[in-house]
Amino acid sequence: MSTTTSAAPPRAPKETRAARRVRLTDRTRKERNLGWMLAGPAFIAMVAVTGYPILNAIWLSLFDFRLTDPSGREFVFLGNYLTILTDGLFWQQFGITSLITIVTVSVELVLGFGLAMVMHRALYLRTALRTAILIPYGIITVVSSYAWAYAFSNTYGFVNGVFGLGEYDWFGGTWSALFTVCVAEIWKTTPFMSLLLLAGLAQIPDDYLEAAKVDGATAWQRVKRVILPNMKAAIMVALLFRTLDAFRIFDSIFIMTAGAQNTETLSFLAYRQTISRVMVGLGSAVSVILAILVVLIAVMFVKVFKTDLSQQRGDKK
Amino acid sequence: MKVSRRTQAFWIAGAILIIAYAIIPVLWIISLSFKEGDDITNKSFLPSTWSWENYKTVFASDLFTTALRNSVGMSLIATTISVILATLAAYAISRLDFPGKRLVLGVALAITVFPVIAIATPLFDLWRNIGLYDTWLGLIIPYLSYSLPLSVYVLAAFFREIPWEMEQAAQVDGATAWQAFRRVIVPLATPGVFTAAILTFFAVWNDFVFGITLTSSEAARPVPAALAFFQGASQFSQPTAPIAAAAVVVTIPVVILVLLFQRKIVAGLTNGAVKG
Question: pTM for the full model?
Fold first, then answer.
Protein backbone atom coordinates (compact mmCIF):
# COMPACT_ATOMS: atom_id res chain seq x y z
CA MET A 1 0.00 0.00 0.00
CA SER A 2 2.63 2.48 1.11
CA THR A 3 4.84 3.85 -1.64
CA THR A 4 7.52 5.56 0.45
CA THR A 5 8.95 2.65 2.43
CA SER A 6 12.12 0.86 1.32
CA ALA A 7 11.95 -2.19 -0.87
CA ALA A 8 12.81 -4.87 1.67
CA PRO A 9 10.03 -4.75 4.30
CA PRO A 10 7.01 -4.73 1.98
CA ARG A 11 8.24 -7.86 0.25
CA ALA A 12 7.80 -10.02 3.33
CA PRO A 13 4.09 -9.34 3.89
CA LYS A 14 3.53 -9.71 0.17
CA GLU A 15 4.97 -13.20 0.30
CA THR A 16 2.93 -14.20 3.31
CA ARG A 17 -0.14 -12.78 1.69
CA ALA A 18 0.61 -14.77 -1.45
CA ALA A 19 1.19 -17.87 0.65
CA ARG A 20 -2.11 -17.35 2.42
CA ARG A 21 -3.78 -16.88 -0.89
CA VAL A 22 -2.58 -20.27 -2.01
CA ARG A 23 -3.99 -21.83 1.12
CA LEU A 24 -7.37 -20.24 0.47
CA THR A 25 -9.47 -22.51 -1.63
CA ASP A 26 -10.88 -21.24 -4.87
CA ARG A 27 -14.34 -21.23 -3.36
CA THR A 28 -13.42 -19.20 -0.30
CA ARG A 29 -11.75 -16.62 -2.48
CA LYS A 30 -14.78 -16.39 -4.71
CA GLU A 31 -16.99 -16.03 -1.67
CA ARG A 32 -14.81 -13.20 -0.34
CA ASN A 33 -14.87 -11.38 -3.64
CA LEU A 34 -18.58 -11.80 -3.97
CA GLY A 35 -18.99 -10.58 -0.39
CA TRP A 36 -17.28 -7.32 -1.15
CA MET A 37 -18.90 -7.00 -4.54
CA LEU A 38 -22.31 -7.16 -2.89
CA ALA A 39 -21.60 -5.19 0.27
CA GLY A 40 -19.20 -2.72 -1.37
CA PRO A 41 -21.68 -0.36 -3.03
CA ALA A 42 -23.74 0.07 0.16
CA PHE A 43 -20.54 0.52 2.16
CA ILE A 44 -19.26 3.20 -0.21
CA ALA A 45 -22.63 4.97 -0.25
CA MET A 46 -22.61 5.09 3.54
CA VAL A 47 -18.99 6.14 4.01
CA ALA A 48 -18.60 8.57 1.13
CA VAL A 49 -21.40 10.82 2.22
CA THR A 50 -20.89 10.67 5.95
CA GLY A 51 -17.15 10.13 6.29
CA TYR A 52 -16.03 13.25 4.52
CA PRO A 53 -18.54 15.62 6.15
CA ILE A 54 -17.65 14.30 9.60
CA LEU A 55 -13.92 14.83 9.03
CA ASN A 56 -14.60 18.16 7.35
CA ALA A 57 -16.74 19.26 10.30
CA ILE A 58 -13.96 18.39 12.74
CA TRP A 59 -11.46 20.32 10.59
CA LEU A 60 -13.70 23.37 10.18
CA SER A 61 -14.48 23.44 13.88
CA LEU A 62 -10.86 24.49 14.44
CA PHE A 63 -11.31 27.71 12.46
CA ASP A 64 -12.95 31.03 13.08
CA PHE A 65 -14.82 30.97 9.80
CA ARG A 66 -17.78 32.95 8.60
CA LEU A 67 -19.19 31.95 5.23
CA THR A 68 -19.82 35.55 4.19
CA ASP A 69 -16.22 36.49 4.97
CA PRO A 70 -13.98 33.68 3.61
CA SER A 71 -10.81 35.78 3.69
CA GLY A 72 -11.21 36.32 7.42
CA ARG A 73 -10.81 32.59 8.04
CA GLU A 74 -8.44 32.07 10.90
CA PHE A 75 -7.07 28.99 12.65
CA VAL A 76 -8.11 29.10 16.30
CA PHE A 77 -7.46 25.44 17.26
CA LEU A 78 -9.82 24.63 20.15
CA GLY A 79 -10.93 28.24 20.48
CA ASN A 80 -14.47 27.52 19.24
CA TYR A 81 -14.87 24.72 21.74
CA LEU A 82 -13.69 26.99 24.52
CA THR A 83 -16.15 29.69 23.41
CA ILE A 84 -19.02 27.20 23.42
CA LEU A 85 -18.19 25.36 26.63
CA THR A 86 -17.74 28.60 28.59
CA ASP A 87 -21.01 30.04 27.29
CA GLY A 88 -23.91 29.81 29.71
CA LEU A 89 -26.34 29.54 26.79
CA PHE A 90 -24.77 26.27 25.68
CA TRP A 91 -25.21 24.73 29.12
CA GLN A 92 -28.76 25.97 29.34
CA GLN A 93 -29.54 24.32 26.00
CA PHE A 94 -27.74 21.20 27.11
CA GLY A 95 -30.04 21.23 30.14
CA ILE A 96 -33.18 21.73 28.03
CA THR A 97 -32.15 18.93 25.65
CA SER A 98 -31.42 16.55 28.54
CA LEU A 99 -34.70 17.46 30.23
CA ILE A 100 -36.73 16.78 27.08
CA THR A 101 -34.86 13.49 26.60
CA ILE A 102 -35.40 12.27 30.16
CA VAL A 103 -39.05 13.31 30.36
CA THR A 104 -40.12 11.98 26.96
CA VAL A 105 -38.19 8.71 27.18
CA SER A 106 -39.45 7.85 30.67
CA VAL A 107 -43.07 8.65 29.84
CA GLU A 108 -42.72 6.70 26.60
CA LEU A 109 -41.31 3.69 28.42
CA VAL A 110 -44.26 3.48 30.82
CA LEU A 111 -46.86 4.33 28.19
CA GLY A 112 -45.19 2.11 25.59
CA PHE A 113 -45.20 -0.81 28.01
CA GLY A 114 -48.92 -0.33 28.58
CA LEU A 115 -49.53 -0.21 24.83
CA ALA A 116 -47.43 -3.34 24.30
CA MET A 117 -49.34 -5.20 27.04
CA VAL A 118 -52.68 -4.32 25.46
CA MET A 119 -51.46 -5.29 21.97
CA HIS A 120 -50.13 -8.56 23.35
CA ARG A 121 -53.24 -9.51 25.34
CA ALA A 122 -56.23 -8.07 23.45
CA LEU A 123 -57.94 -10.82 21.48
CA TYR A 124 -60.26 -8.47 19.64
CA LEU A 125 -59.47 -5.32 17.67
CA ARG A 126 -55.95 -6.63 17.09
CA THR A 127 -55.59 -5.46 13.49
CA ALA A 128 -57.30 -2.15 14.14
CA LEU A 129 -55.00 -1.57 17.09
CA ARG A 130 -51.79 -2.26 15.19
CA THR A 131 -52.93 -0.20 12.22
CA ALA A 132 -53.88 2.77 14.41
CA ILE A 133 -50.63 2.68 16.30
CA LEU A 134 -48.57 2.76 13.11
CA ILE A 135 -50.09 6.08 12.07
CA PRO A 136 -48.21 8.21 14.62
CA TYR A 137 -45.08 6.18 13.78
CA GLY A 138 -45.36 6.77 10.04
CA ILE A 139 -46.64 10.35 10.07
CA ILE A 140 -44.18 13.11 9.17
CA THR A 141 -42.76 14.71 12.32
CA VAL A 142 -43.37 18.17 10.89
CA VAL A 143 -47.05 17.30 10.35
CA SER A 144 -47.51 15.98 13.88
CA SER A 145 -45.72 19.06 15.24
CA TYR A 146 -48.13 21.32 13.37
CA ALA A 147 -51.12 19.29 14.56
CA TRP A 148 -50.06 19.70 18.19
CA ALA A 149 -48.96 23.31 17.84
CA TYR A 150 -52.38 24.21 16.42
CA ALA A 151 -54.19 22.10 19.02
CA PHE A 152 -52.47 24.06 21.82
CA SER A 153 -52.69 27.43 20.04
CA ASN A 154 -54.90 30.00 21.76
CA THR A 155 -56.13 31.28 18.39
CA TYR A 156 -56.92 28.01 16.60
CA GLY A 157 -56.77 25.26 19.17
CA PHE A 158 -59.33 23.13 20.93
CA VAL A 159 -57.21 22.26 23.97
CA ASN A 160 -57.96 25.46 25.87
CA GLY A 161 -61.66 25.07 25.06
CA VAL A 162 -61.81 21.46 26.24
CA PHE A 163 -59.98 22.14 29.50
CA GLY A 164 -61.59 25.55 30.08
CA LEU A 165 -58.30 27.42 30.02
CA GLY A 166 -59.63 30.49 28.20
CA GLU A 167 -56.89 32.45 26.48
CA TYR A 168 -53.97 30.64 28.11
CA ASP A 169 -50.86 31.04 25.93
CA TRP A 170 -49.00 27.71 25.95
CA PHE A 171 -46.19 29.12 23.81
CA GLY A 172 -45.72 32.17 26.02
CA GLY A 173 -43.60 30.51 28.69
CA THR A 174 -40.63 28.13 28.70
CA TRP A 175 -42.23 25.34 30.73
CA SER A 176 -45.62 25.31 29.03
CA ALA A 177 -43.98 25.47 25.58
CA LEU A 178 -41.67 22.59 26.51
CA PHE A 179 -44.69 20.69 27.76
CA THR A 180 -46.38 20.94 24.35
CA VAL A 181 -43.17 19.85 22.60
CA CYS A 182 -42.92 16.83 24.92
CA VAL A 183 -46.56 15.91 24.30
CA ALA A 184 -46.00 15.99 20.53
CA GLU A 185 -42.81 13.94 20.80
CA ILE A 186 -44.38 11.37 23.11
CA TRP A 187 -47.41 10.98 20.87
CA LYS A 188 -45.29 10.44 17.78
CA THR A 189 -42.68 8.04 19.17
CA THR A 190 -44.41 5.93 21.85
CA PRO A 191 -45.74 3.52 19.18
CA PHE A 192 -42.21 2.74 18.01
CA MET A 193 -41.15 2.11 21.61
CA SER A 194 -44.18 -0.10 22.20
CA LEU A 195 -43.47 -2.23 19.14
CA LEU A 196 -39.92 -2.89 20.32
CA LEU A 197 -41.29 -3.80 23.76
CA LEU A 198 -43.96 -6.00 22.20
CA ALA A 199 -41.19 -8.01 20.50
CA GLY A 200 -39.65 -8.64 23.94
CA LEU A 201 -43.00 -9.41 25.52
CA ALA A 202 -43.79 -11.99 22.85
CA GLN A 203 -40.66 -13.95 23.78
CA ILE A 204 -41.76 -14.63 27.36
CA PRO A 205 -43.22 -18.14 27.54
CA ASP A 206 -46.82 -18.20 28.73
CA ASP A 207 -45.91 -21.03 31.13
CA TYR A 208 -43.93 -18.59 33.30
CA LEU A 209 -46.99 -16.40 33.81
CA GLU A 210 -49.25 -19.41 34.28
CA ALA A 211 -46.91 -20.77 36.95
CA ALA A 212 -46.75 -17.42 38.75
CA LYS A 213 -50.53 -17.22 38.69
CA VAL A 214 -50.88 -20.71 40.12
CA ASP A 215 -48.47 -19.73 42.90
CA GLY A 216 -50.82 -16.87 43.76
CA ALA A 217 -48.92 -13.89 42.33
CA THR A 218 -51.00 -10.73 41.83
CA ALA A 219 -51.09 -8.99 38.45
CA TRP A 220 -48.59 -6.39 39.66
CA GLN A 221 -46.25 -9.06 41.06
CA ARG A 222 -46.38 -10.89 37.76
CA VAL A 223 -45.37 -7.73 35.89
CA LYS A 224 -42.59 -6.89 38.31
CA ARG A 225 -41.15 -10.35 38.99
CA VAL A 226 -41.79 -12.23 35.77
CA ILE A 227 -42.44 -9.95 32.82
CA LEU A 228 -39.98 -7.10 33.36
CA PRO A 229 -36.91 -9.21 34.25
CA ASN A 230 -37.52 -11.42 31.22
CA MET A 231 -37.67 -8.57 28.73
CA LYS A 232 -34.65 -6.62 29.92
CA ALA A 233 -32.91 -6.87 26.55
CA ALA A 234 -35.90 -5.46 24.68
CA ILE A 235 -36.24 -2.63 27.20
CA MET A 236 -32.58 -1.69 26.85
CA VAL A 237 -32.73 -1.68 23.04
CA ALA A 238 -35.88 0.45 23.09
CA LEU A 239 -34.39 2.87 25.61
CA LEU A 240 -31.13 3.17 23.68
CA PHE A 241 -32.83 3.87 20.34
CA ARG A 242 -35.22 6.40 21.79
CA THR A 243 -32.69 8.20 23.98
CA LEU A 244 -30.31 8.75 21.07
CA ASP A 245 -33.21 9.95 18.98
CA ALA A 246 -34.71 12.22 21.62
CA PHE A 247 -31.36 13.85 22.33
CA ARG A 248 -31.20 14.98 18.70
CA ILE A 249 -34.68 16.55 18.80
CA PHE A 250 -34.96 19.19 16.10
CA ASP A 251 -38.04 19.07 13.86
CA SER A 252 -40.65 19.67 16.56
CA ILE A 253 -38.65 22.49 18.17
CA PHE A 254 -38.24 24.15 14.79
CA ILE A 255 -41.97 23.98 14.01
CA MET A 256 -43.55 24.44 17.43
CA THR A 257 -41.43 27.09 19.14
CA ALA A 258 -38.58 27.95 16.73
CA GLY A 259 -36.43 28.10 19.84
CA ALA A 260 -38.40 30.97 21.35
CA GLN A 261 -38.90 31.26 25.15
CA ASN A 262 -35.55 29.54 25.78
CA THR A 263 -36.68 26.27 24.27
CA GLU A 264 -33.65 25.89 22.02
CA THR A 265 -32.01 22.46 21.90
CA LEU A 266 -28.46 21.52 20.87
CA SER A 267 -29.43 20.37 17.37
CA PHE A 268 -31.26 23.64 16.88
CA LEU A 269 -28.22 25.59 18.07
CA ALA A 270 -25.99 23.78 15.57
CA TYR A 271 -28.46 24.57 12.80
CA ARG A 272 -28.82 28.23 13.75
CA GLN A 273 -25.09 28.85 14.01
CA THR A 274 -24.24 27.28 10.65
CA ILE A 275 -27.23 27.96 8.43
CA SER A 276 -28.80 31.14 9.77
CA ARG A 277 -25.74 32.89 11.12
CA VAL A 278 -23.28 31.24 8.67
CA MET A 279 -20.75 30.86 11.49
CA VAL A 280 -19.48 27.64 9.96
CA GLY A 281 -16.57 27.18 12.37
CA LEU A 282 -18.62 27.65 15.51
CA GLY A 283 -21.58 25.65 14.14
CA SER A 284 -19.30 22.75 13.20
CA ALA A 285 -17.89 22.76 16.72
CA VAL A 286 -21.44 22.53 18.14
CA SER A 287 -22.14 19.62 15.77
CA VAL A 288 -18.99 17.82 16.87
CA ILE A 289 -19.87 18.32 20.55
CA LEU A 290 -23.39 17.02 19.90
CA ALA A 291 -21.98 13.96 18.13
CA ILE A 292 -19.57 13.28 21.00
CA LEU A 293 -22.41 13.56 23.51
CA VAL A 294 -24.54 11.12 21.52
CA VAL A 295 -21.67 8.64 21.30
CA LEU A 296 -21.09 9.00 25.07
CA ILE A 297 -24.75 8.22 25.75
CA ALA A 298 -24.56 5.18 23.46
CA VAL A 299 -21.38 3.91 25.15
CA MET A 300 -22.93 4.44 28.58
CA PHE A 301 -25.97 2.41 27.61
CA VAL A 302 -23.91 -0.41 26.16
CA LYS A 303 -21.78 -0.52 29.34
CA VAL A 304 -24.80 -0.67 31.65
CA PHE A 305 -26.40 -3.19 29.32
CA LYS A 306 -23.34 -5.46 29.40
CA THR A 307 -22.86 -5.47 33.17
CA ASP A 308 -26.56 -6.04 33.48
CA LEU A 309 -26.50 -9.06 31.23
CA SER A 310 -23.46 -10.58 32.94
CA GLN A 311 -25.12 -10.06 36.31
CA GLN A 312 -28.15 -11.89 35.05
CA ARG A 313 -25.94 -14.71 33.94
CA GLY A 314 -24.30 -14.67 37.37
CA ASP A 315 -27.65 -15.00 39.07
CA LYS A 316 -28.44 -18.18 37.26
CA LYS A 317 -25.30 -19.99 38.48
CA MET B 1 -53.94 -18.88 28.76
CA LYS B 2 -57.49 -18.85 30.01
CA VAL B 3 -58.93 -15.37 29.99
CA SER B 4 -62.03 -14.40 31.89
CA ARG B 5 -64.67 -12.25 30.29
CA ARG B 6 -63.92 -9.37 32.65
CA THR B 7 -60.20 -9.36 31.84
CA GLN B 8 -61.01 -9.42 28.16
CA ALA B 9 -63.35 -6.44 28.56
CA PHE B 10 -60.50 -4.62 30.28
CA TRP B 11 -58.15 -5.24 27.33
CA ILE B 12 -60.81 -4.17 24.83
CA ALA B 13 -61.32 -0.91 26.70
CA GLY B 14 -57.54 -0.44 26.61
CA ALA B 15 -57.49 -1.10 22.87
CA ILE B 16 -60.22 1.46 22.20
CA LEU B 17 -58.37 4.02 24.31
CA ILE B 18 -55.17 3.44 22.33
CA ILE B 19 -56.93 3.72 18.99
CA ALA B 20 -58.41 7.05 20.12
CA TYR B 21 -54.96 8.18 21.27
CA ALA B 22 -53.47 7.37 17.88
CA ILE B 23 -56.07 8.94 15.64
CA ILE B 24 -57.41 12.00 17.50
CA PRO B 25 -54.51 14.32 16.52
CA VAL B 26 -54.87 13.11 12.92
CA LEU B 27 -58.63 13.78 12.96
CA TRP B 28 -57.87 17.21 14.41
CA ILE B 29 -55.58 18.25 11.57
CA ILE B 30 -58.10 16.86 9.04
CA SER B 31 -60.92 18.84 10.67
CA LEU B 32 -58.73 21.96 10.72
CA SER B 33 -58.04 21.60 7.00
CA PHE B 34 -61.78 21.79 6.26
CA LYS B 35 -62.34 25.03 8.16
CA GLU B 36 -62.99 27.97 5.89
CA GLY B 37 -62.00 31.61 6.44
CA ASP B 38 -62.57 32.85 9.99
CA ASP B 39 -63.95 29.49 11.02
CA ILE B 40 -60.33 28.52 11.67
CA THR B 41 -60.49 30.43 14.95
CA ASN B 42 -63.75 28.83 16.15
CA LYS B 43 -61.71 26.88 18.73
CA SER B 44 -63.91 23.85 18.54
CA PHE B 45 -62.73 20.50 17.28
CA LEU B 46 -64.99 20.45 14.24
CA PRO B 47 -65.58 23.07 11.53
CA SER B 48 -69.00 24.86 11.51
CA THR B 49 -69.17 24.28 7.77
CA TRP B 50 -67.00 21.83 5.84
CA SER B 51 -65.17 23.39 2.92
CA TRP B 52 -62.62 22.26 0.30
CA GLU B 53 -61.34 25.84 0.06
CA ASN B 54 -57.94 25.15 1.67
CA TYR B 55 -57.24 22.20 -0.62
CA LYS B 56 -57.94 24.44 -3.62
CA THR B 57 -55.54 27.06 -2.24
CA VAL B 58 -52.85 24.49 -1.64
CA PHE B 59 -53.06 22.84 -5.05
CA ALA B 60 -53.17 26.22 -6.75
CA SER B 61 -49.87 27.11 -5.11
CA ASP B 62 -46.71 26.28 -7.07
CA LEU B 63 -44.79 26.15 -3.84
CA PHE B 64 -46.77 23.13 -2.68
CA THR B 65 -47.18 21.27 -5.95
CA THR B 66 -43.48 21.47 -6.83
CA ALA B 67 -42.59 20.43 -3.28
CA LEU B 68 -44.94 17.47 -3.59
CA ARG B 69 -43.35 16.49 -6.90
CA ASN B 70 -39.89 16.80 -5.32
CA SER B 71 -40.90 14.72 -2.29
CA VAL B 72 -42.50 11.94 -4.32
CA GLY B 73 -39.70 11.82 -6.89
CA MET B 74 -36.79 11.95 -4.48
CA SER B 75 -38.36 9.52 -2.00
CA LEU B 76 -39.07 6.92 -4.67
CA ILE B 77 -35.61 7.20 -6.23
CA ALA B 78 -33.80 7.12 -2.89
CA THR B 79 -35.93 4.22 -1.61
CA THR B 80 -35.35 2.15 -4.75
CA ILE B 81 -31.58 2.61 -4.81
CA SER B 82 -31.28 2.19 -1.07
CA VAL B 83 -33.21 -1.06 -1.01
CA ILE B 84 -31.26 -2.53 -3.95
CA LEU B 85 -27.91 -1.73 -2.34
CA ALA B 86 -29.11 -2.88 1.08
CA THR B 87 -30.41 -6.18 -0.32
CA LEU B 88 -27.04 -7.00 -1.85
CA ALA B 89 -25.17 -5.96 1.30
CA ALA B 90 -27.52 -7.79 3.68
CA TYR B 91 -27.21 -10.96 1.63
CA ALA B 92 -23.43 -10.77 1.86
CA ILE B 93 -23.56 -10.08 5.60
CA SER B 94 -25.96 -12.86 6.51
CA ARG B 95 -24.75 -15.54 4.08
CA LEU B 96 -21.14 -15.04 3.11
CA ASP B 97 -17.91 -15.07 5.04
CA PHE B 98 -15.69 -12.20 4.04
CA PRO B 99 -13.19 -9.98 5.86
CA GLY B 100 -14.59 -6.58 6.78
CA LYS B 101 -18.10 -7.80 7.50
CA ARG B 102 -17.99 -6.31 10.98
CA LEU B 103 -16.63 -3.08 9.52
CA VAL B 104 -19.72 -2.73 7.31
CA LEU B 105 -22.03 -3.36 10.26
CA GLY B 106 -20.01 -1.03 12.49
CA VAL B 107 -20.16 1.81 9.97
CA ALA B 108 -23.92 1.29 9.62
CA LEU B 109 -24.33 1.51 13.39
CA ALA B 110 -22.08 4.59 13.61
CA ILE B 111 -24.23 6.40 11.04
CA THR B 112 -27.46 5.69 12.89
CA VAL B 113 -25.84 7.09 16.02
CA PHE B 114 -24.37 10.20 14.42
CA PRO B 115 -26.72 13.22 14.61
CA VAL B 116 -28.22 14.17 11.24
CA ILE B 117 -27.71 17.84 11.95
CA ALA B 118 -23.99 17.21 12.45
CA ILE B 119 -23.82 15.82 8.89
CA ALA B 120 -26.19 18.32 7.35
CA THR B 121 -24.22 21.43 8.23
CA PRO B 122 -20.88 20.26 6.76
CA LEU B 123 -22.75 18.89 3.74
CA PHE B 124 -24.25 22.36 3.28
CA ASP B 125 -20.72 23.69 2.96
CA LEU B 126 -19.50 20.88 0.71
CA TRP B 127 -22.53 20.85 -1.61
CA ARG B 128 -22.20 24.59 -2.21
CA ASN B 129 -18.61 24.07 -3.31
CA ILE B 130 -19.32 21.25 -5.77
CA GLY B 131 -22.67 22.46 -7.09
CA LEU B 132 -24.96 19.88 -5.50
CA TYR B 133 -26.64 22.44 -3.28
CA ASP B 134 -30.36 22.80 -4.00
CA THR B 135 -30.54 19.86 -6.43
CA TRP B 136 -32.39 16.53 -6.31
CA LEU B 137 -29.12 14.61 -6.33
CA GLY B 138 -27.89 16.70 -3.43
CA LEU B 139 -30.74 15.35 -1.30
CA ILE B 140 -30.95 11.82 -2.69
CA ILE B 141 -27.33 11.10 -1.75
CA PRO B 142 -27.69 11.87 1.98
CA TYR B 143 -31.09 10.11 2.01
CA LEU B 144 -29.28 7.02 0.76
CA SER B 145 -26.56 7.03 3.35
CA TYR B 146 -29.02 7.65 6.16
CA SER B 147 -31.59 5.04 5.11
CA LEU B 148 -29.09 2.29 4.23
CA PRO B 149 -28.26 1.24 7.82
CA LEU B 150 -31.92 0.66 8.68
CA SER B 151 -32.60 -1.35 5.50
CA VAL B 152 -29.39 -3.35 5.92
CA TYR B 153 -30.35 -4.32 9.49
CA VAL B 154 -33.95 -5.15 8.65
CA LEU B 155 -32.93 -7.20 5.62
CA ALA B 156 -30.09 -9.01 7.35
CA ALA B 157 -32.56 -10.07 10.05
CA PHE B 158 -34.93 -11.39 7.39
CA PHE B 159 -32.21 -13.18 5.46
CA ARG B 160 -31.01 -15.03 8.54
CA GLU B 161 -34.37 -16.77 8.71
CA ILE B 162 -34.29 -18.03 5.14
CA PRO B 163 -33.33 -21.75 5.12
CA TRP B 164 -29.65 -22.19 4.27
CA GLU B 165 -30.10 -25.68 2.84
CA MET B 166 -32.03 -24.45 -0.17
CA GLU B 167 -29.17 -22.31 -1.34
CA GLN B 168 -26.69 -25.12 -0.77
CA ALA B 169 -28.96 -27.55 -2.56
CA ALA B 170 -28.99 -25.24 -5.56
CA GLN B 171 -25.19 -25.06 -5.47
CA VAL B 172 -24.91 -28.85 -5.22
CA ASP B 173 -27.09 -29.02 -8.29
CA GLY B 174 -24.48 -26.95 -10.09
CA ALA B 175 -25.62 -23.39 -9.59
CA THR B 176 -22.96 -20.73 -8.94
CA ALA B 177 -23.13 -18.55 -5.86
CA TRP B 178 -24.68 -15.82 -7.97
CA GLN B 179 -27.31 -18.14 -9.46
CA ALA B 180 -28.15 -19.45 -6.01
CA PHE B 181 -28.69 -15.87 -4.95
CA ARG B 182 -30.73 -14.87 -7.96
CA ARG B 183 -32.96 -17.94 -8.33
CA VAL B 184 -33.38 -19.22 -4.78
CA ILE B 185 -32.87 -16.42 -2.32
CA VAL B 186 -34.48 -13.51 -4.16
CA PRO B 187 -37.98 -15.05 -4.32
CA LEU B 188 -37.76 -16.08 -0.65
CA ALA B 189 -36.50 -12.66 0.37
CA THR B 190 -38.99 -10.55 -1.56
CA PRO B 191 -41.35 -10.02 1.43
CA GLY B 192 -38.43 -8.77 3.52
CA VAL B 193 -37.24 -6.48 0.76
CA PHE B 194 -40.72 -5.10 0.49
CA THR B 195 -40.87 -4.34 4.21
CA ALA B 196 -37.48 -2.66 4.09
CA ALA B 197 -38.75 -0.53 1.20
CA ILE B 198 -41.76 0.67 3.20
CA LEU B 199 -39.67 1.55 6.25
CA THR B 200 -37.11 3.32 4.06
CA PHE B 201 -39.83 5.26 2.32
CA PHE B 202 -41.22 6.40 5.69
CA ALA B 203 -37.78 7.56 6.81
CA VAL B 204 -37.05 9.48 3.61
CA TRP B 205 -40.56 10.93 3.31
CA ASN B 206 -40.20 12.22 6.88
CA ASP B 207 -36.92 14.07 6.27
CA PHE B 208 -36.84 17.66 7.41
CA VAL B 209 -33.26 18.48 8.40
CA PHE B 210 -31.68 17.80 4.99
CA GLY B 211 -34.69 19.41 3.33
CA ILE B 212 -34.18 22.75 5.01
CA THR B 213 -30.37 22.82 5.14
CA LEU B 214 -29.56 21.66 1.61
CA THR B 215 -32.14 23.59 -0.39
CA SER B 216 -32.80 27.26 -0.94
CA SER B 217 -35.56 27.26 -3.55
CA GLU B 218 -38.40 25.24 -5.01
CA ALA B 219 -35.91 23.34 -7.17
CA ALA B 220 -35.50 20.52 -4.69
CA ARG B 221 -37.33 21.49 -1.51
CA PRO B 222 -39.42 18.56 -0.19
CA VAL B 223 -42.85 19.00 1.42
CA PRO B 224 -41.89 18.95 5.13
CA ALA B 225 -39.40 21.74 4.52
CA ALA B 226 -41.80 23.63 2.27
CA LEU B 227 -44.48 23.53 4.96
CA ALA B 228 -42.20 25.45 7.29
CA PHE B 229 -41.86 28.22 4.69
CA PHE B 230 -45.47 28.18 3.60
CA GLN B 231 -47.35 31.46 3.20
CA GLY B 232 -51.08 32.00 2.94
CA ALA B 233 -52.96 32.93 -0.20
CA SER B 234 -51.83 36.51 0.28
CA GLN B 235 -48.90 37.69 2.31
CA PHE B 236 -51.20 38.86 5.07
CA SER B 237 -53.49 35.91 5.50
CA GLN B 238 -52.52 33.32 8.08
CA PRO B 239 -51.21 30.12 6.46
CA THR B 240 -52.63 27.88 9.21
CA ALA B 241 -55.51 26.31 7.29
CA PRO B 242 -53.57 25.74 4.05
CA ILE B 243 -50.73 24.19 6.08
CA ALA B 244 -53.27 21.83 7.65
CA ALA B 245 -54.57 20.89 4.18
CA ALA B 246 -51.03 20.31 2.87
CA ALA B 247 -50.24 18.27 5.97
CA VAL B 248 -53.25 16.06 5.33
CA VAL B 249 -52.21 15.53 1.70
CA VAL B 250 -48.72 14.30 2.68
CA THR B 251 -50.17 12.05 5.36
CA ILE B 252 -52.36 10.17 2.85
CA PRO B 253 -49.52 7.99 1.45
CA VAL B 254 -48.50 7.07 5.00
CA VAL B 255 -52.03 6.04 5.93
CA ILE B 256 -52.44 3.99 2.74
CA LEU B 257 -49.16 2.13 3.32
CA VAL B 258 -50.09 1.49 6.95
CA LEU B 259 -53.56 0.19 6.05
CA LEU B 260 -52.22 -2.14 3.36
CA PHE B 261 -49.07 -3.44 5.00
CA GLN B 262 -49.66 -3.19 8.76
CA ARG B 263 -48.49 -6.75 9.43
CA LYS B 264 -45.30 -6.42 7.40
CA ILE B 265 -44.32 -3.12 9.01
CA VAL B 266 -44.74 -4.49 12.55
CA ALA B 267 -42.74 -7.60 11.66
CA GLY B 268 -39.98 -5.54 10.06
CA LEU B 269 -39.63 -3.15 12.97
CA THR B 270 -39.57 -5.82 15.66
CA ASN B 271 -37.31 -8.28 13.77
CA GLY B 272 -34.72 -5.76 12.73
CA ALA B 273 -34.38 -4.23 16.16
CA VAL B 274 -34.24 -7.33 18.30
CA LYS B 275 -32.13 -9.57 16.12
CA GLY B 276 -30.12 -7.03 14.15
Answer: 0.84
